[in-house]
Here is the input.
Amino acid sequence: MDSFLLQILNGLDKGGAYALIALGLTLIFGTLGVVNFAHGALFMLGAFCAVSLQKLLTLSVKVKDESITFFEAYKEVPYLEQWFGQTGTTIIEYSVPLSILFSIPIMLAIGLIMERGLIKHFYKRTHAEQILVTFGLAIVLQEIIKACFGANPIPQTPPEFLTGSANLGAWLGMGDNLVYPWWRLVYLAFAGMLISAVFAFLNYTTFGMVVRAGMQDRETVELLGINIDRRFTIVFGLAAVVTGLAGVMYTPILPPDYHIGMDFLVLSFVVVVVGGMGSLRGAVAAGFLLGILQSFASMNAVKSILPGIDQIIIYLVAVIILLVRPRGLMGRKGVMEA
Amino acid sequence: MTDKPFSKSILTRRSMLKGAAGVTAGAGALLLNGTAPMTFTRDAWAAQFRNDPGNNPTVKFGFNVPQTGPYADEGADELRAYLLAVKHLNGEGDGGMLNTMKPLSLKGNGILGKKVDFVTGDTQTKSDAARASAKRMIEKDGVTMFSGGSSSGVAIAVQSLAQEMGVVFMCGLTHSNDTTGKDRRRYGFRHFFNAYQSGAALGPVLKDEMGTERRAYHLTADYTWGWSQEESIKNTTEGLGWETVNTVKTPVGAGDFSQYITPVLNSGADVLILNHYGKDMVNSLTQAVQFGLRDKQVNGKNFEIVVPLFSRLMAQGAGDNIKGILGSTNWNWTLQDEGSKAFVKSFGQEYGFPPSQAAHTCYVQTLLYANACEMAGTFYPPEVIKALEGFNFDGMGNGPTLYRAEDHQCIKDVLVVRGNANPSSQFDLLEVVQQVPRSQVDFSPTLFGGELGPYEV
Here is the structure.
């Protein structure tokens, strides 16, 4: 039972990341009709917002390391620690939560520049051309990050009080084996809140109502004198923020490197296709579903029957769902269909 | 037309004399054409082998390391060591281990009077990319030797290319038994220790520290090195009386290991053995600690984690999670022998921090190859190989060492280390628990099978 619950938690955790990326991807596809292969790069850029803030907070002065005697070695003491002592150390410790605030304006700006500067020129082009140009953009962004930060993963740590594990078993009266890292629980809660916020924004605000109307019938909304293009541009920016925040919060789980976006991109497209192109609910549902399936496929009992299933389960499920429901779980008729 | 009767075609005195004259003339022509050595002096084989530096004032090496991928940290440090080795070979800097290596044929003026030049490549920690990069170095850049490592899969792949193309490959960091076992090659040489030796070194320490009644769970990188290490450590621990609860293969570069770690919690195991290296090891260890494994008590014992192959770079990446964890390593910068001190001083002065074990093995391999060329008096690979085979040396950081002729494996001391709980400096991350003598980690060259193949290709 413990193993079962742990794998569900693992799946929800992973699914949270898939769902957040797929949500942004679907928002862009649903509003602008663009198949954005640079979306994984937005996740990566979000993660590197956290890295950048950490680097800013730990800007250091070099002090000679007296413990090394046979060559000149220097250790780095952050200015914040020099100037503010323990307060400085605490600020550095909270760099990941602070990155949430830091990344929002940056990701919004990146999203707006990306849409206005490049993507808008490809609205009327074919999906194949959109894929080519956005994939090219992803590679360019990836190489820029590699040139600036190197190829190695850069570890990020959560605040001290969130580094251990929560003994869920003791709380639920189920023994000591049901433990789960605090930060992963925080990530899960954060993903849930962010997804809810996006849905609330689209469902309960006037802006969201207009956007949804535009997604249904763009021409009629424009005939009513509403500048739907501007709203869709903002939606692109919001999708970039959602994906970027997913990246920021994932850094303590997986140290980011320049390739992290590509690792998630392919899976996220599978999630979007399984959920149904253009369906926000489908993207979220498929994200969690595939995350959980991937976790269960990694269980020893499953792998002993089907060795290697953990590596292919997502694609296998995608094939089956597309055979049974060609439009995905919640796909609409007419989306990406000739 | 009728055939001559068989009896007419047998050897006569006349035909015998004609044949002998022909053979003599042919041999003379060959000699005059220069296709065989006329005089047995240095570089007499000059025209016969691939990438012969000939009359060039330089000789070129290829350094093929992972600059991206899960082992990029090691790759970066390997490259630093190669550059330092080239500097020392060319008579620049303080000479490093050239001051301590015994016996030494090098004179500090390059190799056989030629300055050393080099090209670099990125293996991406992928066999196909590594082979492509090595092929480019051999065919386009004309290297006489290439070196590099950090993945046994890559080392084995490029080692077989070295044999096919007749260019010596000096392995960097590769730990699989197969590299000098079933996949050994005449043109491949390994200074680094192997998984069997890790097990042999760790066994007695594990017994002393954890006893003989333990239940072990393995998480293993799913490629040749992981399988090899799992098998060796499993044999060792089962020899101690430990039970193996499960062995689970994980994909290289998995990133998130949570789905592989959570089953450990309920498995009844009280030891987790992480057969991971580089970025994978940093991630899996960090996540195992995050899941509270080190705070657990199972079967009335403290839960322990063992990392059979350790490096200071990994310890750096894993931060505090590494403290108190046992493992083995080829070399550590805190060793106090003259060779280690000379190398650490040179490297530290050059880069501002001490070298890793990956850097050490690559530096030593470059000097050993260069020294073998000097000993052989030629760059002709079969002669260089013969100079390396059975070569006994000292002063390179691991005590007296033998480059075993039968499998091209160095036999030397191995270190058992522990993540330092109270480091004296930012670099003092591993504490040497024991320097295990080479007699304890020696093994038969036939243990893992394999054939070296021919000298001439």
